[in-house]
Amino acid sequence: MPRILSVGGALALLFSMVVPAAAPSYCSTSGWGGNCDVTNTGTSVDIGASHNTPGRGGGDNRGDRDDDIRPPSDGGSGTAPECTGLCRGNYEVELIREVTLTDLASFAPAAPPLTGQPAGVAIVGMPANFVVAASTHTVTGELFDLPVSVRFTPASYLLVHGDGTAREASTGGQTWEALGQAQFSATATSHAYGSRGTFTAHAAVRYSAAVDFGNGWAPVPGVLELSTGGYAVDVLEVRTALVERTCVEDPGGPGC
């Protein structure tokens, strides 16, 4: 609310300004003057922001000079009477209300694929190698036309084999070739099925997240869990037999 004071015969208008509260540490850069709220939903990072525009003086009568303020015309000589105390004229001072804008941006990690070796096939009692291709990556966006980045880092993996078993892993695994291992070798992400059948495996990747508003990375509490799609595995049984010729020599022979 504006107040009118008489100071040495002059009139002064005093305005009370609304100053936004200091933003949390997530938005403490010079470009971010609003308040931000970073929420981990378990599958995405939601960043909500509010920005306050303080009220300000308006109208034609700004009160910055004595001769800008005129009492209403009463049909007299047009000369303003001497002001010996507090003078009130029929003028108005308008205030623009504080405006609050809100915005929301949601950031989710990329869905990781799940593959296996041999491709789509496993042998009873022998390791099948699973690989989850998840990696650290950054997703960018904007709030109030200002840049914001969210970085997702794989923290752990849960491999669900589809036969009622599962295992935790600290890595998404690598192919036998990348590991320099022979086919059907055991790895940190391999699994040996105990019976024949078709099973659908999947994996869940747990990500940690950090957010950057331009002044460095700040961690987001909690983890986000994202599941891969299903991966079908046909588990076969291998039997050996003594034969006279190889399958190349006799394509119609037993087991060929």
Structure summary:
With 256 residues, the protein is an all-beta fold. It contains one helix and 17 strands. The protein has two domains: 100 residues, no CATH class; 128 residues, Immunoglobulin-like (Sandwich).
Structural commentary:
Residues 1-25 and 57-71 have low confidence and may be disordered. The chain is mainly β and 256 residues long. The radius of gyration is 36 Å and the shape is rod-shaped. The protein has one helix at 176-179, and strands at 3-7, 10-14, 35-40, 45-53, 57-58, 94-95, 99-107, 114-117, 121-123, 127-132, 137-143, 146-160, 166-169, 190-192, 197-212, 217-227, 231-236. The chain has 1 helix and 17 strands. The strands form 5 sheets. Strands 9, 11, 12, 13, 15, 16 and 17 form a 7-stranded mixed sheet that branches. It has 2 domains: 3-102, no CATH class; 109-236, Immunoglobulin-like, CATH 2.60.40.10.
